[in-house]
Design goal:
138 residues; alpha/beta; CBS-domain; 3-stranded mixed β-sheet
Length: 138
Amino acid sequence: MTTAREIMTEGAECIGADESVLRAARKMAEMGVGALPICGADDRLKGVLTDRDIVVKVLAAGKDAEATTAGELAQGEAVTIGADDDASVILRTMADHKVRRLPVIDGHRLVGMVAQADVARALPDPQVGDLLEALSTD
């Protein structure tokens, strides 16, 4: 069975929990990504910051993107998968938590991200269709 390590995008870069949301937005633009893992000073994952979080929770709320830190937007424990988890775990985790991106962890170290697009490229159409349906319903 296909594992997270086989389909993930390697080289995921964190935004520090103490770094500004403005810095995160610029980093997303430079990297051409829609989400960044949020890491604390201890290099442990604190959450995931999405471009939608920035728009809805910062800009639309009238907050200052330079004064708001990425860590302020981290919500509880991050939903992750292990690098050696198989595709069924990826699909179930994305569907259960209604997330389109998952940080991939090896031990406590962030090693990559699995996005909905990675799943679509790597897995057979019926599985992808089931995931899309699960993510598209309330």
